[in-house]
Amino acid sequence: MAGACVAGAFRGPCGLAVAADGRIGRVAAHAAGHGRAIDLRPSRCIAIPAFANAHVHLDLSSIPAESLPRSGFADWIEGLVAARNASGSAAGFERAVIRGAEELLRHGCAAIGDIDSTGAAWAALRRTPLEGVVFREWLGATVGPALAAANAAALAERSGAEGDRLRWGISPHAPYSTSAEVYATAFASARQHGVLVTSHVAESREEEAYLRERAGPLAELFRRWNVERRPGGDDALSPLSRLASLGPPRGFLVVHGNLLPAADLDACARNGWPLVHCPRSREWFGHPSPPLAEAARRGVLLALGTDSRASNPSLDPWQELATWRRHDRELADRALIAAATRGGRAALQLPPAELRDGEWATFQLVEPVDGADLGADEWPAVAVRGGLRTVALFIRGRVAWQAAHLPSLGGADLPPPG
After folding, report:
1. What number of CA atoms fall less than 13 Å from residue 319's CA on the CB side?
2. Whole-prediction pTM
3. CA 311 to CA 215: how far, in whole Å?
4. Residue 161 CB coordination number (10 Å)
């Protein structure tokens, strides 16, 4: 079985062998004697790295975006909270997590950064082959230090018990919904216990108005709910600058960042804070476009997210890439692909999954939607314009999903839960 490298991908007939320990045994060479050989002949498939979705809310997968208000960000939040409160039991949220996970697997996603607001995600995700980080969401005005420390310690302990496939993290929700005290406690707990932390930051104009003036639709919403949020810090500061004064650890994942000024981009680069872009969620709300090309020029690690089904028609990284490409003409096609694959894994501090000997055999087989042959340098341009689709997904050497029209690749040979 001979193979040829195609600019970071491998196309059939392809020499790609998966060793018994789930790592790539030999690439672009004869596969005999190096594990299970995957022969792509006579298909037009190519093998490329699997997607990493660095920001998703799987427990909201049963709440469709079209059921929620689009009259403004605060109205959407109010509608989402009501829908989530009405959606019922822990079992229902677990079903939503599984539904969202299955959708991601069908679209070539192997790794996630999932925001768990209900407590349902961990148990559900252990029944899937997905890798990644489950970020337990914190929000509100106060959190007891003793409770927070115990919570973070439990997260770290459970992560260790799971190995390196799934880990816990902490997600203080957003500066407009979560106090400075909660953020400071989350950051301290993350540093103490070695867990990742993430937050929605600088997402909307409404957030900006509330933080600077305690005015606008969010202020009105909080008055209706009879709650008060005290973000703390200098009202003239940007949302990320406020948080920076509270000591986020290295690796703090900044989600959205649609309104980040240049100084905040420098802070992200200097402190190793990745920026996670959610293209279709941003488009759905009509938020400003984040300064992604400038962020990349300044050395910020970029990653891709889908956000939730509550602000997105699907959890499809292919569509995220196409939307990103449509709104961003500065970054190269390969930069977008990198953000959706190795950038997300790096942001989530997961082991690399490149198409190289000795790396984890985590990759997807894809084919052109129109059935055409691809030249050696064509696939990234086709990928970011919606021209490819996933037909099989491998995670750590095991088949996580495959399309019905493919010959059997070994069945759903998944690792046991936990």
Report:
1. 14
2. 0.90
3. 24
4. 8
As a whole number of angstroms, the distance between CA 374 and CA 397 comes to 25
For 108-161, what is each residue's pLDDT tens digit?
999 999 999 998 999 999 999 999 999 999 987 655 554 455 455 555 555 554
- Give the contacts of 159 (CB within 8 A, at least 6 positions apart): 166, 167, 168, 195
Amino acid at 142: T
Instruction: Write the CA distances from 107 to 180, 319, 344, 405, integer angstroms.
Output: 38, 10, 15, 15
Domains detected in the chain: 4-49+353-402 (2.30.40.10), 51-347 (3.20.20.140)
Q: Rounded CA gap, 251 and 284, in Å?
A: 28
Strand partners, 10: 5, 47
Contact between residue 341 and residue 51 where contact means Cβ atoms under 8 Å apart: yes
CA end-to-end distance (rounded Å), the chain: 35
| Nearest alpha-carbon partner for 35 in 21, 20, 45 | 20
The per-residue pLDDT for range 230-249, each reduced to its tens digit, is 666 677 789 999 999 999 99
CA distance 16 to 3: 8
Beta pairing partners, 112:
53, 132
**CA–CA gap between residue 62 and residue 65 (Å, rounded):** 10
CA distance 325 to 333: 8
Q: Mean per-residue pLDDT for 186-190?
A: 92
Q: Answer whether 179's CB lies under 8 Å from 211's CB.
A: no
Question: Which two three-digit tokens encode residue 252?
Answer: 């703090």
Q: In angstroms, rounded to a whole number, what is the distance separating the alpha carbons of residues 286 and 284?
A: 6
Q: Does the pLDDT value for residue 270 go beyond 70?
A: yes
**pLDDT tens-digit map of 306-351:** 999 999 999 999 999 999 999 999 999 999 999 999 999 999 999 9
Distance in angstroms (rounded) separating the CA atoms of residues 302 and 335 = 9
How far is 188 from 121, CA to CA, in rounded Å? 24
Q: What is the pLDDT of residue 2?
A: 26
Least confident piece of the model among 71-85, 114-128, 397-411? 397-411
Whole-angstrom distance, CA of residue 253 vs CA of residue 268: 9
Report the alpha-carbon distance of residue 282 to residue 290 in Å, rounded. Answer: 9
> Which residues are CB-neighbours of 234 under 8 A, at least 6 positions away?
242
Bridge partners (DSSP) listed for residue 17: 26, 37
* Longest distance between any two alpha carbons in the chain, whole Å: 68
- Give residue 399's identity as a one-letter amino acid code: V
Find all residues with CB under 8 Å of 407, minimum gap 6, and list them: none
